[in-house]
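Let's sit down with a protein and look at its sequence and fold side by side. Please make up or recall a protein chain and show it to me in full. Label the sequence line and the structure token line clearly, so we can match residues to local backbone shapes. Go ahead whenever you are ready, and we will take it from there.
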Amino acid sequence: MKLIIAIIQPHRLEEVKEELYKAEINLITVSEVLGHGRQKGVTEFYRGHKETGNLLRKIRLEIAVNDNFTEPTIKAIMKGAKTGSTGDGKIFVLDLKDCVRIRTEERGATAIG
């Protein structure tokens, strides 16, 4: 099992979700976050507004998957998020020790779904 964390540009969220759904990945958590990478101080445009400064608006996706869905998930995120510009984001893949579905108390790969 893996936990995939992706930081993407806000305006690419719908494209990423579409690609994930095409790859049959439907269980995602989405958060609005602030941060910067190497482009600190670079001006970005978000919904037509110019944003400058240390912390830029980003979207954080968290997706728990069974091992056989790791690569399809990464490819879907890259396809939906990539613009070719600085600030497209990052994908982190972490080993997931366990997962528990609270309602049924199932554990592991079964709990992920």
Notes: The chain has a mean pLDDT of 90.
